Amino acid sequence: MRKKLLCVMMSAAMVATMFTGCGGGSDANETTKGTTEAPETEDEKETEEETDKETDADSDNEDKEYAKADGDIIYWSMWNSTDPQAEAIQEAIDAYEEASGNTVKVEWKGRDIQKIIQAQLDAGEDIDLFDEDYYRIAQSYADSCLDLTDMAEAADYESKSREVIVDAFVEEAGSLKGIPYQPYTSGIFYNKAIFEEAGIEEEPETWEEFLDVCEKIKEAGYSPLALDDAYVLYNYGYHLARYIGQDGVKELCTEGGWADSEEALKAAEDMVYLIENEYFESGAPGIYPASENTMGYDESAMIVMASWTPNEVQQNTEAEIEWGMFNYPTVEGGKDEQTVANIGGQALAISKDSKNAEAAFDLIMMITTGEYDQKISLATNSIPADPTNEEWPEILPCKDEFESLTGTYEWNMGLNANSDFQTVLKDLVLKLFEGSLSAEEFISEADASFSK
Amino acid sequence: MKKNKTMIICFITPAIVTFVLMYLYPVIRTVLMSFFKVEKVTAGLSEWSFNGLDNYISLFSTEAFLISMSNLLKIWIVGGVVVLSLSLLFAVILTSGVRGKNFFRAVIYLPNVISAVALASMWIQFIFNNRFGLIHSIGESLGIRSLERLNMLSSDNKFWAMLIAFCFGAVGYYMLIFLSGIERIPSDIYEAATLDGATKPKQFTLITLPLLKGVFKTNLTFWSVHTISFYVWSQMFSPVDTEASTIVPVQYMMNIVFGSKSGSERDAGKGAAIGVTLALMVVLVFFLFNKLIKEEEVEY
Fold first, then answer.
1. Smallest Cβ distance to B259: which of A14, A136, A449?
2. Which secondary structure element, helix H or strand E, spans residue A183, and what is its range?
3. Interface contacts A/B by beta carbons within 8 Å
4. Residue B22: C-alpha distances to residues A190, A429, B19, B81 (Å)
């Protein structure tokens, strides 16, 4: 009898340990819940309350009525709790909790959220809102997200958002399946001091003017351009899209026809011209971020990249550069204007099964508009999502360029349309920039690879 | 006897239930999924549409996947020869009575306790960087211009740079397994051989190697499993977009199952077909090694 009992107890213990081992996944993640934050001292509380009162007085949301949540609002975040974005978002959450009386439970998942969010949404995990890459939400997760059009209309979101970025998102997603924030724009970022030293007074608008600028910079003793291997497709894609537009690039990648495309060859020849005239710094294409860092060492003057680059170069090299920026130049006979650029960012979305959709939307508005959007922008040196936030981080010189955009490109301007081909094309473009393939060889190899 | 049966059932049931739920179900689902057109990995059965062997046919006619398989084969063969030879060499040296055995063993094993992400960053930024990396600095101080300008991370060299970095981190693990195998061989065999006039190389080829057959088989199987799941290193050496020079099947699978940087199209069915192909490769390799390497009757 005792043996039997022992057996049962041992097997029960075994089962218990097995399930303990399996469970506890969520504990492994960093979780913060508004009401269980580390206790603050009375002084800190008082100071915060005073500041909150002051800011509340100025805030438009002063008399706003917040939707009541049924239990905690659960937010899965793409940031780690130590990221500057997370710190700024946490501030917005604290303010929201205080104003609404709701509590928010945040799971700081970090970038790996990309691999788990779809499965979790499909499995019915209790997630009210989450954030992820803007294009991935629009293209991959839109079916699992709630259409926010009505709520956005009721909240007058139009007046607090940037048309160009919302339109691009809606075009991809079909409807407003998320609220973009921390947007980026792209073009050519440059070191103003080098431009001055080289006697360049006007920012170039056309490719010919751009080549003149490169020549002047070279004569002044600097390398005109930096380029990292991670972004070779981005550079070639930008140039090709100027000739044939993003749809044309997509067609080349999905339907083929490289050998017959004069523009694809011309775009490659233009890139070879830059290489032959030694307009790229000697280590280009360097392994990311080696080449972009040469801007921080005052060796290179320009880079074709997105608006996070100035911050990245500053973080990597501690260089104090006065940055300038202009949109990517037009090419002769090209389809697209200078006011078309690759833009993107992150977006916050609400799960279509959320029972706290309205409360979650209030929280999203708190994060992506007004005071807290401004804070996120300044804390992370990024563009404010709300156009009424006039203050841009000092390091970002692209306000006018961004606000004048009339059209947008996706990441790599259409070269990603066929992921199988893109993998092969990336190597060919890399070889083109390394100088080991001529423009003609590049085109014929691209054509041959596509035909396979 | 009856009591024993109850006991067996008591202890086996939880394991079987867990095995079926946590392992067998996903395996069966993945195998089934590989014969269907499925977009999302979590899609319900109603969203699956049967397409026979199309996923497999399409995979094996996709250049990117074939390149990834050829990269994997190179890692398995070239990396395998380098890693297993070096680890055997180190194991033999460490068991030959060298001083500071424990210290060297710990040093050689150390890369295994460091995350692959940190190791890859170290190699990329501090060794291969052609501005201030170790190779550049050595070339500069010795005045060897070609070494100074050597770009290990160019599209032609990147694969080999990645393989060197990966092998560096892998040697310690296999060395420990060889080490334990060698230490199990009784020392009196070597003493007798020495008295009979056998030299050290002769002892190695005629005693150590034959008695390590079983350990070799274990190491080869581990190496195969290890390389087939190769992923992090490729991701670190091509951080934004995947590149043909470093792509491996698992990376390709991750891209098509979860989408890549630009949120390109997803195909969980094809991803499942890659998973099944890789699993079959492991089974095949295991079967071949079992057939080819017959274990000796004498084993320690």
1. A136
2. strand A179-184
3. 128
4. 54, 44, 5, 35
Q: Is the pLDDT of residue A164 over 80?
A: yes
Quick count: other Cβ atoms within 10 Å of Cβ A374? 19
Tens digit of each residue's pLDDT (9 = 90 or more) over B170-212: 999 999 999 999 999 998 998 999 999 988 889 889 998 888 9
Question: Which CATH architecture does the domain made up of B39-98+172-292 adopt?
Answer: Orthogonal Bundle (1.10)
Among the residue ranges A25-29, B40-44, B145-149, the one predicted with the least confidence is A25-29
- Chain A hits for B22, CB-CB cut-off 8 Å, are 22
Whether residue B14 and residue A14 make contact (CB cut-off 8 A), yes or no, is: yes
A282, pLDDT greater than 80: yes
Interface of A with B in 417-446 (CB under 8 A): 417-424, 426-427, 430-431, 434, 436
* Tens of pLDDT, residues A239-281: 999 999 999 999 999 999 999 999 999 999 999 999 999 999 9
- Domain holding A59, by residue range, is 54-185+344-386
Chain A contact set for B3 (CB, 8 A): 3-4
- Inter-chain CB proximity A430 and B243 less than 8 Å: yes
**Best interface-test mutation with A: which of B12, B155, B159, B258 has the largest number of A CBs within 10 A?**
B155
A170, A221: one domain:
no
Model confidence, pTM: 0.83
**Residues of chain B contacting residue A3, judged by C-beta atoms under 8 Å apart:** 3
Task: Quickly list DSSP for B164-230.
Answer: HHHHHHHHHHHHHHHHHHHHTS-HHHHHHHHHTT--HHHHIIIIIHHHTHHHHHHHHHHHHHHHHT-
Is the domain of A411 the same as that of A379? no
Structure tokens at B14: 């939880």
Q: What is the DSSP string of A198-218?
A: TT--S---BHHHHHHHHHHHH
Count the domains in chain A.
2
The beta-carbon neighbor of A136 closest among B3, B67, B263 is B263
ipTM over 0.95 threshold: no
My answer on whether A351 and A328 are in the same domain is no
Taking the CA of residue A132 and the nearest CA in chain B, the distance in Å comes to 11
Report the C-alpha gap between A108 and A195 in whole angstroms.
42
Taking an 8 Å cut-off on Cβ atoms, the answer to whether A423 and B67 are in contact is: yes
pLDDT at A124: 85
In this model, does residue A114 exceed pLDDT 50? yes
Instruction: pLDDT band for B264, please (50, 70, 90 cuts).
Output: low
